[in-house]
Amino acid sequence: LVNNGILSDITPLRKASNVVDPFTTTNGSAVVTVADVDHRANDGDHITVYSTSAVGGLTMGADPLAHAISLYSATEDHRVRWFSVRRAAKGHGSCQRLEGALYPGDHLVVVDDVTTTRSSLFEAAEACLDAGYKVDRCVVLVDRSLDSHMSMRINGHDIEVKSVFTMDEIRAAR
């Protein structure tokens, strides 16, 4: 929701809590910290995707972000398509690992909801590169990693990693 130049999430505000199984993170942790903050960002606090053709990542974590960015872009000057990356290609239908409106030469932004080890970002970006697309950058909503290194090297490509929030920023906002 955008009101007077301020972008606000309309999700109800909740307290921080620990959620235990059935949730397990990619790195094997059985406890996931769920933290909601004010959900407000100033107009201009954004990551530019204007040179991007499409946005997506590993399905499920990336799907809501990719859909929201694509839908929002429909109100802007530059439309961005969305795509999903499966962990493995299906054995039926299109038999593809990447699904969505992707075209040769597309520039992609790989997204994810939360990362600790960046393994899901790496896997999705690698699949996109292997399929012949250019990955401009990776963006994660919440970066829980302790590693401040903001790029990944995949198949000879240096790919910038941006986070919207770090866990330290979320903790500080509580």
Description of the molecule:
This protein is of the alpha/beta class. Helices cover 17% and strands 36% of the residues. The chain has three helices and twelve strands. It has helices at residues 63-73, 119-130, 167-173, and strands at residues 2-3, 6-8, 17-20, 31-34, 40-42, 54-58, 81-85, 98-100, 107-115, 134-143, 151-154, 157-166. The strands form three sheets. A seven-stranded mixed β-sheet has the order 8-7-6-9-10-12-11. Strands 1-2-5 form a three-stranded antiparallel β-sheet, with no helix packed on it.
Largest sheet: 7 strands, mixed
How far do the termini sit from each other? 22 Å
Instruction: Give the averaged pLDDT, no decimals.
Output: 76
Sequence stretches where pLDDT stays below 50 over 5 or more residues: 1-24, 27-46
H/E topology pattern: EEEEEEHEEEHEEEH
- What percent of residues adopt helix (DSSP H or I)? 10-25%
Proportion of residues in β-strands: 35-45%
Give the radius of gyration. 16 Å
Number of helices: 3
Number of strands: 12
Provide key terms for this protein.
174 residues; alpha/beta; seven-stranded mixed β-sheet; three-stranded antiparallel β-sheet; 12 strands; 36% strand; disordered N terminus
How is the topology of this model organized?
Layout: E1 2-3, E2 6-8, E3 17-20, E4 31-34, E5 40-42, E6 54-58, H1 63-73, E7 81-85, E8 98-100, E9 107-115, H2 119-130, E10 134-143, E11 151-154, E12 157-166, H3 167-173
Parallel strand pairs: 6-7, 6-9, 9-10, 10-12
Antiparallel strand pairs: 1-2, 2-5, 3-4, 7-8, 11-12
